[in-house]
Amino acid sequence: MLAYSGAVTDAFKALADPTRRTILDELTARDGQTLFELCARLTTNHGLASSRQAISQHLEVLESAGLVRTRREGRYKFHEIDTAPLEPIVERWLRRPGSDPGGTGETS
Amino acid sequence: MLAYSGAVTDAFKALADPTRRTILDELTARDGQTLFELCARLTTNHGLASSRQAISQHLEVLESAGLVRTRREGRYKFHEIDTAPLEPIVERWLRRPGSDPGGTGETS
DNA sequence: ACTATAGGCAAGCACTCACTTGCATGTCAA
DNA sequence: TTGACATGCAAGTGAGTGCTTGCCTATAGT
Questions:
Q1: What is the signed CA dihedral for A68, A72, A77, A83, rounded to 10 degrees?
Q2: A29-56 pLDDT tens trace
Q3: Which protein residue has its CA closest to C1' of C9?
């Protein structure tokens, strides 16, 4: 349908993958991890056996969805979770019916 | 990876599509619509130009994710939104860090 | 300079997904 | 019963996704 993919779609698509949700779990338990740190802890703490490149690509998806912010220091790159995009997500349908949501132009 | 897809994954995947989110919007504004009713209102109210079969398949996804329940009456089939699967979604990462989530076995 | 470490880039592959197409089933009105 | 209406089923297609493979860049330590 060639639908325009905005911020809402990005956040939902990022959350659609179990590995990416586990990454968010790990960042919730210990924020500001590097890529290698995440790979090790995902394996030991969550039984995840993904490769470094796989995790790296997942982190790119999470970052472009606004769920993860990165900060470089020397040869290290730290990843921090940002739950801001999550807040308006569920509230969208948890409001009582009767009020027409209307077209805001940003939802999709 | 042959990952087991549970209820959590189903709900997130169902929400990953803009058309399905618009369907939930429509059901929030007017619950208990039929398939044809939804097709018409999605076109007029949301500028959606999806075919009947496409909407029908989206409704199947939403139903198997537990976000929509159906009720048959004669040749009509009414669709009702169920927001129950949405509630534990965001709370998962909005809790303050420090408490190790651990492996409950149902998250993934 | 040399090596190891931490991460990045890009092509390729298997699989999934959203959608279409075409036909079948079931229900109601005449 | 006949025909219109509401929905269901299934094969096929094109695009997207997750992952691998292989190589490259950049920083830090010796």
A1: -10
A2: 999 999 999 999 999 999 998 999 999 9
A3: A53
Nearest CA in chain B to A81: B93
- Domains recognised in chain A with CATH numbers: 7-86 (1.10.10.10)
Q: Structure pTM?
A: 0.86
The token pair that represents A29 in the structure block: 């338990």
Mean pLDDT is lowest, of A1-5, A65-69, B71-75, for A1-5
Select the residue of B18, B83, B95 nearest A3 (Cβ to Cβ).
Answer: B18
Give B 52-81 residues with CB within 8 A of chain A. 81
Token look-up 């990953």 returns B16
- Spanning CA of A74 to C1' of C7, the rounded length in angstroms is 11
Cα A3–chain centre separation: 21
